[in-house]
Design goal:
- The structure is a single chain.
- By secondary structure, the protein is of the alpha/beta class.
- It folds into two domains: 110 residues, Urease, subunit C, domain 1 (Roll), CATH 2.30.40; 310 residues, Metal-dependent hydrolases (TIM Barrel, Alpha-Beta Barrel), CATH 3.20.20.
- The chain is 36% helix and 20% strand.
- Helix 4 links the parallel strand 8 and strand 9.
- Helix 2 runs parallel beside helix 3, helix 2 packs across helix 16 and helix 11 crosses helix 13.
- It is globular and about 70 Å long.
- The termini are far apart.
- This is Amidohydrolase.
- GO terms for molecular function: hydrolase activity, acting on carbon-nitrogen (but not peptide) bonds.
- Keywords: Hydrolase.
Amino acid sequence: MGNQKLLTNIRSLVSCDGSDTVYSDCDLLIDGYQIAKIGKNLPRGDAQVIDASNYIVYPGLVNTHHHFFQTFVRNLITIDYPNLLVVDWLDKIYPIFSQIDSEGIYYSSLVAMADLLKHGCTTAFDHQYCYTKKTGKEAVDRQVEAASLLGIRYHAGRGCNTLEREKGSTIPEEMLETTDEFLLDCERLMKAYHDPNPNSMSQIVVAPCQPINSYQETFEESLAFARKHGLRLHTHLGEGENSIMVERYGKRTLAWAEEIGFVGEDVWFAHGWELQKDEYNVMAQTGTGLSHCPAPAVLGGFPIIDIPAMTKAGMNVSLGCDGSATNDSSNLLDSLRMAYLAQSYHSKSRGGAPSAYEMLKMATAGGAKMLGRDDIGSLEVGKAADLFAIDVNTLPLAGTLHDPLNLLARVGYTGEVAMTMVGGEIKFKDGELTGIDEVRLATQAEQACDERLRSLFPEIFR
């Protein structure tokens, strides 16, 4: 046996497996990166023993939509998302995005990933479409560097924008790429970082930003490239662009995507609050997934998606933070709570809301399925030991511990967790990120924000 850890006397272990198993007063043996055994009174052998008697243990959360580079473009009342339509907001904020450079990408990604880890997220997809004259082509490289330092699993969505403003996009010239240079860089990143094997720490996703800001050929060629190389595909869809798509192509966005083949079990979209009920069936029949991002929908006053109807139709729905410019944090536990409350608010008109546990499974097993991974998303023998634990030996949780399945979203547990483990390695415990000087990095990150954005836009950063 290899490097082993034994979590002993776990108060409750919520597996999120197919049978919704909850173990009580159990041990969890980890051998290398994998879960080896779950049971009572497991032999200790030479394993490193971790007392988990005060812990409820959950599978690591899986974030399926984010924009790490936006972490330095948040808490800005001067460009207030709720007061603008999405397209108008993009038109105002892209000039700020166009000034982000390579160091800005690195430190903003560190901040976002640290926030995710501290709140129980072990795998994060990021939609990186911010390529400027200042970032060059190394944005994903810098994010891989940040992810490697912190030890989080990272799925990189290599995004792009190819359509000029004079042809109807919201993109500044400094952020435009050609389809050819985009795909050439996708190929470079795939060769450098894409690992399809179990326990993979990095994968590449082909992810043109959104249909209204790229040529149709960009999506068509992205599709051909991804299918040739076995990569997954992602884009924004159904977040306010449909009227533009009808004007431009004579059809709604999903119909346009279906026509060119940009649907399927290897495709998932972000947002989808403009999807209509007949489109749920198209999504389900093609196996196309949806990442639900509650924060921007609530913040912008947009429709809250009908998850019960979507899941009844057979859709796979997962959970995402979305970028900090429309969320202001990278706390997926907070998004879980918000999604649960928003669905509960609409429960009477929709014939019942998802339970808090069903929302948790969306953020764990559902997220793993969305990313095409069968090695994470639940706590089962043979799967990666990706997990987080909360310490129940605190006064605010007294009276809630009889139902660990529903506790997180129902009670509103959104603070830092007690421990986060990725592939059997502790990455955050008792308030400290493992193996890094957090104070030094926080100081450097704040300085990077000062030098790269606040000094350039004093009228906005005030």
